[in-house]
Protein backbone atom coordinates (compact mmCIF):
# COMPACT_ATOMS: atom_id res chain seq x y z
CA UNK A 1 0.00 0.00 0.00
CA UNK A 2 1.22 3.55 -0.78
CA UNK A 3 2.59 5.35 2.25
CA UNK A 4 3.14 8.98 3.22
CA UNK A 5 6.45 9.02 1.35
CA UNK A 6 4.67 8.10 -1.87
CA UNK A 7 2.11 10.86 -1.39
CA UNK A 8 4.80 13.48 -0.71
CA UNK A 9 6.77 12.46 -3.79
CA UNK A 10 7.19 15.40 -6.16
CA UNK A 11 5.87 13.38 -9.10
CA UNK A 12 2.65 12.88 -7.12
CA UNK A 13 2.38 16.38 -5.64
CA UNK A 14 2.74 18.21 -8.97
CA UNK A 15 -0.42 16.75 -10.59
CA UNK A 16 -2.35 17.23 -7.34
CA UNK A 17 -1.27 20.87 -6.97
CA UNK A 18 -2.01 21.61 -10.63
CA UNK A 19 -5.49 20.07 -10.32
CA UNK A 20 -6.20 22.09 -7.16
CA UNK A 21 -4.96 25.31 -8.78
CA UNK A 22 -7.11 24.59 -11.82
CA UNK A 23 -10.15 23.89 -9.65
CA UNK A 24 -9.74 27.17 -7.76
CA UNK A 25 -9.37 29.14 -10.99
CA UNK A 26 -12.37 27.38 -12.51
CA UNK A 27 -14.46 28.05 -9.41
CA UNK A 28 -13.94 31.80 -9.79
CA UNK A 29 -14.36 31.78 -13.57
CA UNK A 30 -17.56 29.74 -13.43
CA UNK A 31 -18.99 31.88 -10.66
CA UNK A 32 -18.49 34.98 -12.80
CA UNK A 33 -19.04 33.80 -16.37
CA UNK A 34 -21.39 30.91 -15.62
CA UNK A 35 -23.85 33.20 -13.84
CA UNK A 36 -23.33 35.97 -16.42
CA UNK A 37 -24.06 33.72 -19.40
CA UNK A 38 -26.99 32.13 -17.58
CA UNK A 39 -28.43 35.60 -17.04
CA UNK A 40 -27.91 36.58 -20.68
CA UNK A 41 -29.46 33.37 -22.04
CA UNK A 42 -32.53 33.86 -19.85
CA UNK A 43 -33.40 36.92 -21.95
CA UNK A 44 -35.57 35.82 -24.87
CA UNK A 45 -34.91 38.96 -26.92
CA UNK A 46 -31.13 38.70 -26.70
CA UNK A 47 -29.57 39.00 -30.19
CA UNK A 48 -27.81 35.82 -31.35
CA UNK A 49 -29.21 34.04 -28.28
CA UNK A 50 -29.42 30.68 -30.08
CA UNK A 51 -25.83 30.98 -31.32
CA UNK A 52 -24.51 31.85 -27.85
CA UNK A 53 -26.55 29.05 -26.31
CA UNK A 54 -25.05 26.60 -28.81
CA UNK A 55 -21.50 27.70 -28.04
CA UNK A 56 -21.99 27.39 -24.29
CA UNK A 57 -23.74 24.01 -24.54
CA UNK A 58 -21.38 22.52 -27.14
CA UNK A 59 -18.81 21.06 -24.68
CA UNK A 60 -21.66 19.24 -22.92
CA UNK A 61 -22.87 17.36 -26.01
CA UNK A 62 -19.81 17.30 -28.30
CA UNK A 63 -17.08 14.70 -27.66
CA UNK A 64 -14.34 16.34 -25.50
CA UNK A 65 -11.49 15.07 -27.66
CA UNK A 66 -13.12 16.60 -30.76
CA UNK A 67 -13.76 19.86 -28.91
CA UNK A 68 -10.12 19.91 -27.86
CA UNK A 69 -8.99 19.30 -31.44
CA UNK A 70 -11.04 22.24 -32.73
CA UNK A 71 -9.63 24.46 -30.00
CA UNK A 72 -6.12 23.23 -30.83
CA UNK A 73 -6.61 24.32 -34.44
CA UNK A 74 -7.82 27.73 -33.31
CA UNK A 75 -5.42 28.38 -30.44
CA UNK A 76 -2.32 26.54 -31.65
CA UNK A 77 0.77 28.36 -32.83
CA UNK A 78 -0.47 28.30 -36.42
CA UNK A 79 -4.13 28.84 -35.61
CA UNK A 80 -5.98 32.08 -36.32
CA UNK A 81 -6.33 33.03 -32.66
CA UNK A 82 -3.05 31.40 -31.65
CA UNK A 83 -1.02 33.49 -34.08
CA UNK A 84 -2.60 36.70 -32.79
CA UNK A 85 -1.84 35.71 -29.20
CA UNK A 86 1.72 34.73 -30.11
CA UNK A 87 2.42 38.27 -31.33
CA UNK A 88 1.53 39.45 -27.81
CA UNK A 89 3.82 36.87 -26.24
CA UNK A 90 0.93 34.69 -25.05
CA UNK A 91 0.65 30.93 -25.52
CA UNK A 92 -2.29 28.80 -24.44
CA UNK A 93 -1.55 25.39 -25.93
CA UNK A 94 0.75 23.14 -23.86
CA UNK A 95 0.62 25.45 -20.86
CA UNK A 96 -1.19 25.66 -17.53
CA UNK A 97 -3.43 28.27 -19.11
CA UNK A 98 -4.54 25.63 -21.59
CA UNK A 99 -5.36 23.24 -18.75
CA UNK A 100 -7.46 25.90 -17.01
CA UNK A 101 -9.21 26.83 -20.26
CA UNK A 102 -10.04 23.17 -20.91
CA UNK A 103 -11.56 22.77 -17.44
CA UNK A 104 -13.41 26.07 -17.75
CA UNK A 105 -15.03 25.25 -21.10
CA UNK A 106 -15.94 21.68 -20.20
CA UNK A 107 -17.72 22.69 -16.99
CA UNK A 108 -19.28 25.99 -18.09
CA UNK A 109 -22.63 24.47 -19.22
CA UNK A 110 -23.03 22.83 -15.80
CA UNK A 111 -23.34 26.29 -14.24
CA UNK A 112 -24.86 28.31 -17.08
CA UNK A 113 -27.77 26.04 -18.00
CA UNK A 114 -29.13 25.57 -14.42
CA UNK A 115 -28.82 29.31 -13.78
CA UNK A 116 -30.62 30.08 -17.03
CA UNK A 117 -33.40 27.64 -16.19
CA UNK A 118 -33.75 28.94 -12.62
CA UNK A 119 -34.06 32.55 -13.77
CA UNK A 120 -36.59 31.66 -16.48
CA UNK A 121 -38.76 29.82 -13.94
CA UNK A 122 -38.72 32.65 -11.39
CA UNK A 123 -41.91 34.55 -10.74
CA UNK A 124 -41.90 38.00 -12.33
CA UNK A 125 -43.79 39.51 -9.40
CA UNK A 126 -40.71 39.91 -7.21
CA UNK A 127 -38.72 41.56 -9.97
CA UNK A 128 -41.62 43.83 -10.84
CA UNK A 129 -41.94 44.84 -7.18
CA UNK A 130 -38.24 45.70 -7.18
CA UNK A 131 -38.66 47.86 -10.29
CA UNK A 132 -41.64 49.63 -8.72
CA UNK A 133 -39.45 50.47 -5.72
CA UNK A 134 -37.07 52.22 -8.09
CA UNK A 135 -34.36 49.57 -8.29
CA UNK A 136 -32.43 49.17 -11.53
CA UNK A 137 -32.23 45.90 -13.42
CA UNK A 138 -28.71 45.28 -12.12
CA UNK A 139 -29.72 46.03 -8.51
CA UNK A 140 -32.70 43.70 -8.91
CA UNK A 141 -30.48 40.95 -10.25
CA UNK A 142 -27.98 41.29 -7.40
CA UNK A 143 -30.41 41.81 -4.51
CA UNK A 144 -33.40 39.72 -5.64
CA UNK A 145 -32.46 37.18 -8.30
CA UNK A 146 -29.09 36.01 -7.00
CA UNK A 147 -30.26 35.23 -3.45
CA UNK A 148 -33.18 33.23 -4.82
CA UNK A 149 -31.02 31.08 -7.09
CA UNK A 150 -28.09 30.79 -4.67
CA UNK A 151 -28.51 27.05 -4.16
CA UNK A 152 -28.73 26.47 -7.91
CA UNK A 153 -25.46 28.34 -8.37
CA UNK A 154 -23.78 26.36 -5.59
CA UNK A 155 -24.96 23.05 -7.07
CA UNK A 156 -23.71 24.07 -10.52
CA UNK A 157 -20.33 25.13 -9.13
CA UNK A 158 -19.97 21.86 -7.28
CA UNK A 159 -20.62 19.91 -10.48
CA UNK A 160 -18.38 22.11 -12.62
CA UNK A 161 -15.43 22.03 -10.22
CA UNK A 162 -15.84 18.27 -9.86
CA UNK A 163 -15.86 18.07 -13.65
CA UNK A 164 -12.56 19.97 -13.75
CA UNK A 165 -10.86 17.19 -11.77
CA UNK A 166 -12.08 14.58 -14.26
CA UNK A 167 -11.44 16.48 -17.48
CA UNK A 168 -9.19 14.53 -19.87
CA UNK A 169 -10.15 14.95 -23.54
CA UNK A 170 -9.84 18.70 -24.00
CA UNK A 171 -6.91 18.85 -21.57
CA UNK A 172 -4.97 16.31 -23.63
CA UNK A 173 -5.25 18.59 -26.66
CA UNK A 174 -4.68 21.97 -25.03
CA UNK A 175 -2.39 20.96 -22.17
CA UNK A 176 -0.41 18.26 -23.92
CA UNK A 177 -0.04 15.97 -20.88
CA UNK A 178 3.48 17.18 -20.08
CA UNK A 179 4.94 15.65 -16.92
CA UNK A 180 5.65 18.25 -14.26
CA UNK A 181 3.89 20.99 -16.24
CA UNK A 182 0.41 20.12 -17.53
CA UNK A 183 -0.23 16.69 -16.02
CA UNK A 184 -3.40 16.73 -13.89
CA UNK A 185 -4.53 13.98 -11.50
CA UNK A 186 -6.80 12.40 -14.12
CA UNK A 187 -4.00 12.40 -16.69
CA UNK A 188 -1.62 11.00 -14.08
CA UNK A 189 -4.02 8.07 -13.56
CA UNK A 190 -4.16 7.53 -17.32
CA UNK A 191 -0.37 7.67 -17.61
CA UNK A 192 0.15 5.28 -14.69
CA UNK A 193 -2.26 2.72 -16.11
CA UNK A 194 -0.68 3.06 -19.56
CA UNK A 195 2.73 2.36 -17.99
CA UNK A 196 1.36 -0.61 -16.06
CA UNK A 197 1.96 1.08 -12.70
CA UNK A 198 -1.38 0.18 -11.12
CA UNK A 199 -0.18 0.98 -7.59
CA UNK A 200 0.52 4.56 -8.61
CA UNK A 201 -2.79 4.76 -10.46
CA UNK A 202 -4.56 3.55 -7.31
CA UNK A 203 -2.79 6.23 -5.25
CA UNK A 204 -3.92 8.99 -7.60
CA UNK A 205 -7.45 7.56 -7.72
CA UNK A 206 -7.61 7.52 -3.91
CA UNK A 207 -6.36 11.12 -3.70
CA UNK A 208 -8.88 12.19 -6.31
CA UNK A 209 -11.68 10.48 -4.38
CA UNK A 210 -10.67 12.26 -1.16
CA UNK A 211 -10.49 15.64 -2.85
CA UNK A 212 -13.83 15.34 -4.63
CA UNK A 213 -15.59 14.00 -1.52
CA UNK A 214 -14.13 16.86 0.51
CA UNK A 215 -15.32 19.30 -2.14
CA UNK A 216 -18.81 17.79 -2.09
CA UNK A 217 -19.24 17.94 1.68
CA UNK A 218 -17.72 21.44 1.94
CA UNK A 219 -19.92 23.00 -0.72
CA UNK A 220 -22.97 21.08 0.46
CA UNK A 221 -22.43 22.43 3.97
CA UNK A 222 -21.88 25.92 2.63
CA UNK A 223 -25.06 25.77 0.57
CA UNK A 224 -27.14 24.44 3.47
CA UNK A 225 -25.66 26.61 6.15
CA UNK A 226 -27.91 29.60 5.43
CA UNK A 227 -31.32 28.15 4.78
CA UNK A 228 -32.87 31.13 6.45
CA UNK A 229 -32.00 33.18 3.36
CA UNK A 230 -34.74 31.54 1.33
Describe the 3D structure.
The model is unreliable at 226-230 (pLDDT under 50). The chain has a single domain (9-224), classed as MetI-like (MetI-like fold). With 230 residues, it is mainly α. It is globular. 77% of the residues lie in helices and 0% in strands. It is built from twelve helices and no strands. The protein has helices at residues 4-7, 10-41, 49-61, 64-75, 80-87, 96-121, 124-132, 137-148, 150-166, 169-175, 185-194, 198-224. Helix 7 runs antiparallel to helix 8 (137-148) and helix 11 (185-194) runs antiparallel to helix 12 (198-224).
Give the SSE map:
Layout: H1 4-7, H2 10-41, H3 49-61, H4 64-75, H5 80-87, H6 96-121, H7 124-132, H8 137-148, H9 150-166, H10 169-175, H11 185-194, H12 198-224
Helix pairs in contact: 2-6, 2-9, 2-11, 3-6, 4-10, 6-9, 6-10, 7-8, 9-12, 11-12
Amino acid sequence: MPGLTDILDQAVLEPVLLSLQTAMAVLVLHLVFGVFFGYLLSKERLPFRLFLDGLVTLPLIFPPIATGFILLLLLGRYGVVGQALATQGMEIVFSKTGVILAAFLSGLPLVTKPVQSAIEQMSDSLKEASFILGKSEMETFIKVTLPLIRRVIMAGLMLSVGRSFGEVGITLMLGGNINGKTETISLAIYNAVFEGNFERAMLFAALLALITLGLFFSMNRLAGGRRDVL
